[in-house]
Amino acid sequence: MPDTEHETEHDTYDRLITLLDSAAVDYQLVDHEPEGNTEAVSALRGNPESAAAKCIVLRVKVDRKTTRNVLAVVPGDRRVDLDAVKTLYSARYAGFSDAATAERLARSVPGTVLPFSFDADLEVVADPDVVAQPRLYFNAARLDRSLVVSGADYARLAAPRVERIAAPAAG
């Protein structure tokens, strides 16, 4: 029986690299010990947490019949402001998606979610501080490899909705 989880990760990684290469985007790959936690992987890569893209799949209930799946992308040293997302969508509820749904939509496991969507049912919303990064770091659909691109190239390729959705980290 094939290991579909790893096939999915591999396919998502390959799709990302193909997208970057076809758009002639200048990017850098960084190999490191397997890690999905933003703080820990930023230390391994040697980048400030604020330059990392933290990617979280959200479930947004607009009304009784309408639920949207949103990929929220915020700086690594911040958290997603769920109230801001709720307001953005004029929604009744905004919260974290369950793990199975997040993995299916993001086509990768937690800790490796890209700031890109390859699923029509997953809308990308990025905080302005993400797209403003001269060097944006994120795990490349793998725990052992990260990617670095400019925030401008990221914005051009991912075409996220850019809205203020980050809040200071708790604590």
From TrEMBL:
One of its GO terms (molecular function) is aminoacyl-tRNA deacylase activity. Residues 32-157 form the YbaK/aminoacyl-tRNA synthetase-associated domain. It holds the Pfam family tRNA_edit. This is YbaK/aminoacyl-tRNA synthetase-associated domain-containing protein.
